[in-house]
Amino acid sequence: MRVSRTIQGLGYAAPTALFVTVFFLLPLLLVGQMSLSDWPLLAGDRGTNAPENYTDVTASTLFWPAVRFTLLYTALVTVVLLGLALLLALLVQESRPGAGFYRTVYFLPGALGLASASLLFWGLYSPTTGPLSRLPQHLGLADDPVSFLGTPTSALLSTVFLVVWKFAGFYMLILLVGLQRIPHEVYEAARMDGASRAQTFRSITLPLLRPSLALSLLLCVTGSLLAFDQFFVLTKGGPDNSTVTVVQLIYREAFQRMDLGTAAALSIVVLGALLLLNALQFRGLRHADES
Amino acid sequence: MLTRALGRTPHHVLAGGLAVVFLFPLLWNAWASVSAQPGTAQESGHGLGNYRTLLEYDAGLWRYLLNSTVVSALTVALTVSVSLLGGYAFARFTFPGKNLLFLLTLAILMVPYATLLIPLYVLLGRLHLQNSLIGLSLVLAMFQLPFATFMMRISFEAVPRELEESALVDGCGTAGALRRVLLPAVRPGLITVGLFAFLAAWNDFIAPLILISDSAKAPLPLAVATLRQQSMGAVDYGATEAGVVVLAVPCLLVFLLLQRHYVRGFMSGALKG
């Protein structure tokens, strides 16, 4: 007897269902329970203590500075990264000689891991062996070697530069796909009508590129709000805890303060904020589409 | 000719200047890893001193490379096989709960990495998979599933139904049709999925940081980051630079070889997303 197609379909989907249940749904329920329990790292579950973990989160002196810093970092990275990615995409979109070469070169840092890239820049920014810290001095622009990670502002800007270097090619690819879907005839028509290059860009390229820009924006904002590796490796949250992000705070609560309950509560807060933000972004984009 | 060449100059100056900025850190790091620096194993001249430091550090470079290779291979194998079967199911079958399961798989993308890693740390402990490369691979494969399942679903949907039906008429079961007829047709999609899974698994930092506490089981990124932190005060920049080279070379090679398949991942996302 032949097994029915329904049963076969269930069979093929079973591994996916198993993965989603055990490694996604179960942890999601567990993190909810943990957030309501007294749960030290080593002792394990010691019973309900709600809502203590949640009040602990906002009571932490690092919480609001971390939220503020994460938002500032996100805004900065998003503007610089998407701006540069758009420039790169425009530079390599046409079949000019060398376009393929430039495309590969711009993307190359994207093949590295974020942790590897952070380790690389940690050396590059080093005041002792890095080639950059003495450059302004040699050029006569500064009196002392530049300290790239020494002050809160320079640490933030240095990290933004690293992240832009690592991800610009990635967003360039997304925007390039969008650019290539704009029909040639539209540009032809604009040229016939005597539109300048700036006009063409403003009234044709940008509006027609909106789906790709929206996707880039969503990915970039989400990724930046959850930043961890770059700050953990490059600045270690310093100087003076000035570059601690929200996800770093989760790590600190769990594995340095050894309080999984509070870490879980903070994880739930981050999840809630992210879902809310994504819902708002979707609504905003749909609203913009209708107008 | 001359005016046209001049007209192109600003473009090449800008594009070329940017190319230098993008290449410089990679080239500098490779060069610095074999150059003389005070406080490293390479005090004078050029040579592989820093790589020797890496070979002898703690459990040794070969051990960390092996850990990373095992995790990457397992993650790729799990991601490719689960998403192959799942993609087939979602594209060609109807069964109760199909849409719900597909949405739940995509929902993994909506949940922050860290939100899941805290409970996974506890959960893997209960499954006796804490501190295990298998446990780590299972988690990394789960994070790959949204993209992989989506990619494989559209790959199967792009194959003409007649191809599969003729195989079924010839007496193949669905498993036979999948193996003989569909597998070759969706191979490009599988390569893309495997490539993304490899790059993610090889490079991941936060998952092993949380899930692996035994330093002999650390994958390479974690090992290089701790190598740098352990030498208190005197920091070994040279060994770190050598570590970055060892981390980067496989990724750069794989990317350059399979660039076409990588770009397809973006095309599919942009078309359907």
From TrEMBL, chain B:
It is found in: Cell membrane. Residues 65-258 form the ABC transmembrane type-1 domain. One of its GO terms (cellular component) is plasma membrane. Signal peptide: none annotated. Keywords: Cell membrane, Membrane, Transmembrane, Transmembrane helix, Transport. It is a multi-pass membrane protein. GO terms for biological process: transmembrane transport. It comes from the Bacteria. InterPro entries: MetI-like, MetI-like_sf. The keyword Transmembrane helix applies. It holds the Pfam family BPD_transp_1. Its main location: membrane. PANTHER family: ABC TRANSPORTER PERMEASE PROTEIN MG189-RELATED-RELATED, LACTOSE TRANSPORT SYSTEM PERMEASE PROTEIN LACG. Belongs to the binding-protein-dependent transport system permease family. This is ABC transporter permease. It comes from Streptomyces griseoruber. The lineage of its organism: Bacteria, Bacillati, Actinomycetota, Actinomycetes, Kitasatosporales.
